[in-house]
Amino acid sequence: MKGETIARAWGVTRQDGLVLGFTDHDRVLEFEGISFRPECGLSAKAVVQSSGLSVDNTEAVGVLSDGAITEVDLLAGRWDSADVRLWDVDWSNPSNRRLIFRGRLGEVSRSGGAFKAELRGLSEPLNRTQGRVYHPRCSAELGDRRCCFQTEKPGYSAEGVIHSHDEGQSFRLTGIAGHEARWFERGELIVQSGAAEGLRGVVKLDLPQSGGPREVELWSGLGLHPQPGDRVRLITGCDKRAETCRLKFLNFMNFRGFPHLPPEDWLIAPQVNR
């Protein structure tokens, strides 16, 4: 490829399947089934890549645009973990191109009418802790392939309507009854309708009120605030204790912890009478 005909092109695929293309060239480029548009103001800092297992490091910066990346979508988290591909491409012959980066969007920050997004390379997951942890509490996530519990079972989820909320974090819900206090703690709240549809948060506090709306508080507020009248779904949570697995979920045969593991005090106690 000749240096004077080289342009950068970005392909970004959101988790909901929306695909957008951007380029620093002054005309639209077409390849990979994507139209790469020049007017969206997306660019990148220098890509830092390595041959080892360290994480590729770069950032994408751009201008918020109603036709492409909107502030509402960023606040709603709809760009979180979007798949990103970056090419060097010969704009005079787009078939002559080279993929130089692939990864996902990480943390997104905003300032005025612009945004900045961290890009994480494909090697980033290799830095996560691997292997099994021996602990009295369960190491599985509720409903995953190791837990095997089906959260769709009657009684383990409920749908209601938002009566009111504070900053998208503390909600008062109507239409949810028959569940004891704290039943949904550590579970999820998922917005089912309205502008914030699809957003979800982890439940910190769940308290039914006698004759009034159920109060549900999230650990962190939703990026985009739902409105009163929007429908939400609550999914029960698990505190990963053996007793909870046995009594609440009737799923002790799939418990992935070690409830009879000696406590730390026992391990450091004197070796007398053992």
Account of the protein in words:
Residues 182-265 form the Bacteriophage phiJL001 Gp84 C-terminal domain. It comes from Paracoccus litorisediminis. Pfam families: Phage_BR0599, Phage_phiJL001_Gp84_N. The model is unreliable at 48-55 (pLDDT under 50). With 274 residues, the protein is mainly beta. The strands form 2 sheets. A 9-stranded mixed sheet has the order 3-4-2-1-7-8-9-6-5, with no helix packed on it. A 6-stranded antiparallel β-barrel has the order 10-11-14-13-12-15. The chain is globular, with a radius of gyration of 24 Å. The N and C termini lie far apart (74 Å). The longest helix is centred in the N-terminal third of the chain and has 6 residues, at 71-76. It is built from 3 helices and 15 strands. A hairpin with an 8-residue loop joins strand 12 (188-191) and strand 13. The chain has 2 domains: 3-124, Pnp Oxidase, Chain A (Roll), CATH 2.30.110; 157-235, Elongation Factor Tu (Ef-tu), domain 3, CATH 2.40.30.40. The protein has helices spanning 71-76, 242-247, 264-268, and strands spanning 6-13, 19-23, 29-31, 34-37, 43-44, 57-63, 83-90, 97-111, 114-121, 157-166, 170-174, 188-191, 200-207, 214-218, 231-235.
